[in-house]
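Quick illustration, no need to memorize.
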Amino acid sequence: MSKNPLLFEIKVNSLDDGPGIRTVIFFKGCPLSCVWCHNPEGKRAELEISFDKKACIACDKCLDVCKEGALNRADPNYINREKCTLCFDCVEECPSNALQRVGREMSIEDIFREIKKYEPFYRNSGGGVTFSGGEATFFMEFASQLAKTCKENGIHVLLETGGLFNFDRFVEVFYPNIALIYYDIKIYDAEDHKRYCGADNALILQNFIRLNKLYLEGGVEIMPRIPLIPQITATRANLDAIATFLRRENARRVALLPNNPLWGEKLDKLGGNSSLIKTKSWNSWMNQEEIEGYNSIFAGFEIV
């Protein structure tokens, strides 16, 4: 792993990742492995290469510079990732950006320099910086120091997290430097969570209970978020279980996140494959009637 964690994107002028206008820092690497991950380029903490067949103009410049013979138009994925050494010579030669490097190492100082460029937008809109991924808490020391730098400069910090982290260390170094937490609760049943997300959810639920208790006592606001994934999270049994859990913990607000089918294209660019992509429900946007049906399960909550 790099000395500093890799980022796969710094997204500016975002209106979808918290209040106001925000800069979103996407960390590369996650302790979970959700089968529907909407940011598959954030799952692995290592460098990767992506290929966008729609952007390719078939100039063959990349073929000419690949020393390993890892590129082949007869290959459905174009890149033989076992042969590829990630030298990125092909990326440098590609005129259409069909081939791209996924992941870059940046220091805290370099990241904050990018953040600070947009400070007037945060101030005028009530925005700030959002830590996303991947999973920022996977890099606890680095991310908490970046959050501290933002806070010391008067910049609002929001953390989007899957909740799988060491609670005591989080509260010690990260928690004092953030103003808002978006906390994903995907699947309530432990076995289903392990099946679809790659890990048990006991620690995730426990961390939510403890953080929500702190919030109710005057601490940092925590808002649970539930991705609506067809046939996996968006089932009556799962949503009823999560709603019951949140009511028991006196949660007040909840965000329901409709399925976004565009993740399949991202996975394809990385040479990944999922049988789920081929099903109709996974390739479709949810209609308003479906969404309203899911909302009704969370009657009594403020639904964001």
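The two ends are 37 Å apart (CA to CA).
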